[in-house]
Specification:
Elements: H1 2-7, E1 15-23, E2 26-35, E3 61-64, E4 72-75, E5 88-91, E6 99-100, E7 113-117, E8 120-124, E9 150-155, E10 164-167, E11 185-188
Antiparallel strand pairs: 1-2, 1-11, 3-4, 4-5, 5-6, 7-8, 8-9, 9-10
Length: 191
């Protein structure tokens, strides 16, 4: 749905987890439970380790997948050096670490959108910043100028093929479905 594209949140699940993002010093590695606290669930819940990656990220996408071998998937974003990334990481629920996902995105993306439909994950749109003086933080918010006109699809039934790039011809004038900003949050069910 459009709401889940915008906020990276499925509102039907009880635990809201924020992954990385920005703090006063720039991109963050912190993973924290935003709402409600674990006490809202009846039993001991999964602990999520901080996103201790080679790089801190913000402007990335996050998704709790339906694939137990992938779990939570985090892709793209921008690092502390303001370089847009292609790297993806995953966290298998119940483990105590984040892993570098074996497949990178084909294009570096910041502020892209992510959804899972059936057995496919799609990362769509976003921007590639890399200190480009012609793309400020708000120059693309209401205009398709600077928007990445492609999506990438990962087939969950056969992830060996990696991300498949698909060019997109038509971008809505308000960039809906191509630019998704805000905290990278996922909803995590009680176990």
């Amino acid at each position: 749905s459009e709401a889940s594209l915008t906020s990276h949140t499925l509102l039907l699940r009880p635990r809201l987890i924020e992954i990385g993002g920005s703090d006063d010093t720039g991109p963050s590695t912190v993973v924290k439970e935003v709402f409600p606290r674990k006490a809202a669930c009846s039993e001991t819940q999964y602990e999520l380790p901080d996103l201790r990656l080679p790089v801190a990220l913000h402007g990335h996408v996050a998704l709790l997948t339906d694939n137990d071998k992938i779990g939570i998937l985090v892709c793209g974003g921008e690092n502390i050096k303001e370089l847009t990334q292609t790297v993806c990481f995953n966290h298998v629920l119940g483990s105590n670490k984040w892993n570098q996902f074996p497949h990178r995105l084909k294009k570096a993306r910041k502020g892209s959108c992510i959804i899972q439909e059936e057995n496919k994950i799609q990362v769509k749109g976003g921007v590639k910043m890399d200190k480009n003086p012609y793309l400020s933080n708000c120059s693309y918010r209401h205009s398709p100028i600077g928007v990445i006109k492609s999506s990438e699809v990962l087939e969950l039934s056969n992830t060996r093929g990696g991300w498949q790039l698909k060019e997109e011809d038509d971008i809505p004038s308000d960039c809906s479905g191509f630019i998704c900003y805000g905290p990278s949050r996922i909803s995590l069910p009680c176990i």
